[in-house]
Amino acid sequence: MRKNIDKQYYKQGYKLIAGVDEAGRGAWAGPLVAAAVIMPQQPIILSIDDSKKITAKKRLTLYHVIMQTVINWSIVCITPAEIDKIGLHQANKLALIKAITNLPAQPDVVLVDGFKIENTQQIIHGDALSYNIAAASILAKVTRDRLLCMLHNQSGYYGFAQHKGYGTALHQKNLKKFGVSIWHRCSFAPIKRLEYTK
C-alpha cells in the first residue's frame, strides 16, 4: 500500500482507527460479509493492500497475520434471504453498521470504504488508500470465500468453490441445469429471469 491515509488521523490525535469493508456485494449467491478491524499503529504489515489486488494464497497468509496482530475485530454476515427482503443497498449498510457496533472496543474514528454512514468517515476507494480498511477487506474476503467453499462441500452442483457465487459462465450453466437454490439472491435480475423461465 503506497498511500496510507490513516496516518493523517493519527496526526490529528486519534489512537484507535477502525477500518470497515465488505465482500460479496455483486455476487449472485452466498452471504454479504462485512468486517471491521482496529489495527495497531505499529507494527505495520507492509504487504497489506486491497484484497482484490492480491492472490487468494497471499490473502490467506495475511488473514492469519492480521488476526495475530489486530487490536479488535468483528465480522458480520447478511444472508441472501435478508438481502432479498431489504434490498442490496440497505443490506450493505446494515452489515457495515453491525460490524462497527460489534467491535469489542469502540474506536476513536471509523473509516468506511465508499459508504456514507452517520458518525463515520466515508473513504472512496478506501480499500486502496487506508491500511485499516484494506485489513478489513482481507478479513471479509477470506471469510466469505471460506463460506462459499463450505457451501460447495454441502452441494457441489453450482461450483461455489470456483466462482464464489459470482455470475461466471460456469455458474450460469449450473443454474440453468439445477435451478435456483436457497443460497441464491432471488431479487437479483439474472436469478429472477431464471425463476420466471422455470
Q: Can you count the helices?
A: 9
**Mean pLDDT reading:** 94
**Cα-atom radius of gyration:** 17 Å
**What CATH first level would be assigned?**
Alpha Beta
SSE order: HEEHEHHEEHHHHH
Per the CATH scheme, the topology name is Nucleotidyltransferase, domain 5
Query: How much strand content do the residues show?
Result: 5-15%
Helix content: 40-55%
Structure description:
- With 198 residues, this protein is an alpha/beta fold.
- It has one domain: Ribonuclease H-like superfamily/Ribonuclease H (Nucleotidyltransferase, domain 5, 2-Layer Sandwich), CATH 3.30.420.
- Helices cover 46% and strands 15% of the residues.
- The protein has a five-stranded mixed sheet with strand order 3-2-1-4-5.
- α2 packs across α6.
- It is globular, with a radius of gyration of 17 Å.
Features of this protein?
198 residues, Nucleotidyltransferase, domain 5, 9 helices, 5-stranded mixed β-sheet
Walk me through the topology.
Layout: H1 6-11, E1 17-23, E2 32-38, H2 56-69, E3 72-78, H3 80-86, H4 88-101, E4 109-113, E5 121-123, H5 126-129, H6 131-154, H7 160-163, H8 169-178, H9 189-197
Parallel strand pairs: 1-4, 4-5
Antiparallel strand pairs: 1-2, 2-3
Helix pairs in contact: 2-6, 3-4
